[in-house]
Amino acid sequence: MRPQKKLIGIFYTLVLLPFFLFSQVKEKRFEPNDYGSTAKITKNLGVDVALDYLDFLGMPKAWYYTTGRPEMIVGISDAYVDSTLVEFKGKTTVYRKSPLVKGHGIGVAAIAAAQGNNAYGVPGICYDCGIYSTTYGDFKNLDALMELSRAGVKVINCSWVGSAKYQSAQDSINKLFANGTLIVAGAGNTSWKSSKGTLKYFPASYDHVISVSSGMYKYEHPTDHILYEEGGYPYVENIRGFVGRTAGFFQNDPSQSLKIYPQGTTTLNQDVDILAPTAGVLRFKTLALENKIELVQYEASSTAAPFVSGTIALMFSLYPCLPVEEVESILKMTAMNIDHIEANRPFKGMYGAGLLQTGDAVEMVYQLYNEKETTLIDDQDFSRWDFKITAFSKEVIIRNQKFTEEATLQLTAKNKIILQPNTVLKPGSKGKIALRIQSDLVKDCDLILRDPGILSDD
User: Fold this and answer.
1) CA 94 to chain centre
2) What pLDDT score does 27 carry?
3) Closest Cα to residue 132, out of 153, 116, 115?
4) 97: number of Cβ within 10 Å
5) SS3 at position 17
6) Which of 50, 312, 358, 450 could covalently link to 155 via disulfide, CB atoms 3.0 to 4.6 Å apart?
7) CA proximity to 269, closest of 199, 166, 190
8) Statement: residue 297 has pLDDT above 80
9) Rounded Cα–Cα distance for residues 76 and 309 (Å)
10) CA 322 to CA 344: how far, in whole Å?
11) Euclidean distance between CA atoms 314 and 113, whole angstroms
């Protein structure tokens, strides 16, 4: 997503303080009763399967703050979503009916918003959110998406692609964005071996669309999961932070560095904004249609996109007045930075801000709109994109963070902005930094928490 707005003026009102560490008093965690075999604090009454990808995303922390609200609707532009299924019943409205297409729409909708805490199946990301489903395609006008936006939908998932770009479609997306609706789209499934980062698909590569590709989440270190090809050559699969599903060792020696196999990636290009898990995710359509437990075996941006859509719905559920132009900034600032991973270097600049961290994104929304909280911006290196953040928190701390080259940052805080060590604010001629204290900031609405007692706990 590449917003076109320019920043006007530079305001510096800063407090410089020494570096200090935060200590967490208690783990902020909430689990529904269908959290799989990964559950730590609840008895699982759903499918007996490891939901470690939800742990990686930080879902228990996100759900501590909000599990969504029925009034918050996730739009699903895809194949048919069967509203009679247990996970969708009573919460799903079908605006335009699509063909079943082997349950593709069912699987996508389940990741974003399948009902949770119902002693069945597995929870979706925004599991107490409603669902409006519609058809897909209409590459020139996107009328079905416009219909959902007019109905009040604030985020629409598009796990489909086309290869042609139309100005009429860009015009429609601009209208959607102006109406307060964000489009999240899969970047496509063409591997780097074929694309070399040059192929673009739509709607993912339109302006004001959040483009999502696939990233790996499972094993913390390559040596945790060494496999062998038929010829005896060692390789690894689903290593946390890798942009490709598989990677091989130089000289076939496990003590040597790794090279990601380009055929194991989904579409990567300069328009990709963020990555999300795919391989290892429960394939809900198989559970729903065949009553079988099956995991996604390969990388697929169709699977990745609804994780981001569900995350955005949680963010809006927690703070309904969240400015639409600030959502992407929060997603990117809280993403897991994967630039330091040597195997990712050939793809630098093509995988967005890194891997989605839902728990951190939702928590940042809570911090930004709670005057008792501290908002932390850290551990990223941004040389592009436009960032806009409004903070009501008691202080905003920026540390170990870079905004350089073409990056712009417009940060408006009600109280304090604190710069700590390893902060670099040095954009080039195409970038700009605007830091401002505005003590008369007024919130447009209040936080809506899963448990209002959370405010008193803090």
Assistant:
1) 25
2) 84
3) 153
4) 12
5) coil
6) 312
7) 199
8) yes
9) 9
10) 33
11) 10
**Distance set, CA 458 to CA 208, 245, 453 (Å):** 35, 40, 9
Six-digit token pair at 273? Answer: 């904004």
Task: Say what percent of the chain tops pLDDT 70.
Answer: 94
The fold for domain 37-369 equals Rossmann fold (3.40.50)
Amino acid identity of residue 250, one-letter, is: F
Tens of pLDDT, residue by residue over 328-367, are 999 999 999 999 999 999 999 999 999 999 999 999 999 9
Spatial contact of 293 and 424, defined as CB atoms under 8 Å apart: no
Tokens coding 63: 């759900």
CATH code 3.40.50.200 region(s) in the chain: 37-369
Q: How far is CA 317 from CA 196, 250, 326, 362, in A?
A: 38, 47, 15, 10
SS3 333: helix
Burial of 267 (0-12, 13-18, 19+ CB in 10 A): buried
User: For residue range 77-118, what is the model confidence (pLDDT) as tens digits?
Assistant: 999 999 999 999 999 999 999 999 999 999 999 999 999 999
CA–CA distance, 154 with 309 (Å, rounded to integer): 10
Please tell me the distance from the alpha carbon of residue 380 to that of residue 333, in angstroms, as a whole number: 7
The DSSP code for 336 is B
pLDDT at 375 over 90: yes
pLDDT tens-digit series, residues 130-168 = 999 999 999 999 999 999 999 999 999 999 999 999 999
- Phi/psi at 300 (5° precision): -160, 120
The three-state (H, E, C) secondary structure of 224-252, written as one string: HCEEECCCCCEEEECECCCCCCEEEEHHH
Q: Are 421 and 442 in contact (CB under 8 A)?
A: no
CA 448 to CA 276: how far, in whole Å? 26
